[in-house]
Sequence to fold (331 residues):
Amino acid sequence: MARRRKSKKNIPAKILTLLILLAITFVVLCLITPTEEEMKLKSVGTIQGLELPKPIDGEQIVMHTGYTLSYNEEYEQPSWVAYELTREEVAGTFDRVDNFRPDKAIWTGSATLEDYKGSGYDRGHLAPAADFKWSAEAMDDTFYMSNMSPQAGQFNRGIWADLESVVRQMAVENGNIYIATGPVLSDGPYKTIGKNRVAVPNYYYKVILDYNDDDIKAIGFILPNEKGANSVDFYAVTVDEVEEFTGIDFFPALPDDVEELLESNLDKSKWSFRKYSGSANGTLTLENSSYSENSTVKNLKTVFDMLFYTLKKEVFKELGVSALAKEYGLI
Fold:
């Protein structure tokens, strides 16, 4: 008996079904791969002095081992302290040895120990000693009085210490981060302490930049100088908000378009707010951290994102619907 031939009438229907499936797949991939703005944030390179805010007129910039500060003579403390913190530095093993002392590098003279004596305020580190356990000299340099600011005891040993611990864990999970921190000196007048009339700030801030090529991001914090009533993430804000409150321009070395995107947006889901979980000898606990993800897989994903972004951009351009695709988040 002769075998019946398959009808060719079903072929166009199958091709149409295939085309529909390909179109759906294309749209889905458009939605889950980076947009134009996100691709800008992936196009990173090495920038020197990335942590440094814009210099402030009339203030002296001083470099110590591992960090840089801008000294505000009027208020006898730094307007900002900036440094890079890496995963390896967090794992340092040098023990803390207190050595509070005036900073002879300050031309006009820094605050002194006597200014804080009997004031009821802590000598609050801005560049934390625990971030500089990678070097005995770096650790020692954090005890210059130019790195101190009057902090309420319950603040310094409470929410501020918690934030410092969270920042260390951020460095562990992201590999390295750039930090600028200091007192808010834009909302005076202030109470003062000591012979040198050291101002007691009402608020403190930190801004943090992750500029790794996988997923760069930035976050800011503003905290009142008092016992913290909330968890660290409650105080998170955009970098733009910190700039508006302090009058300081952070991360000016970034390309303008990247700086604008980073500083105006905050996605808390991209950051861990866990405290640093390393042991006393510097052994790191990396469970559930982004660092534990296979780096090869991450690199392949980045390559795919770049290739598909280029493809979809060209497809929508040929169809003449680039503006519409961008409006709906497809490119």
In short: Confidence is low (pLDDT under 50) at residues 279-299. Residues 60-292 form a domain with the Extracellular Endonuclease; Chain A fold (CATH 3.40.570.10). The chain is about 35% helix and 20% strand. The two ends are 57 Å apart (CA to CA).
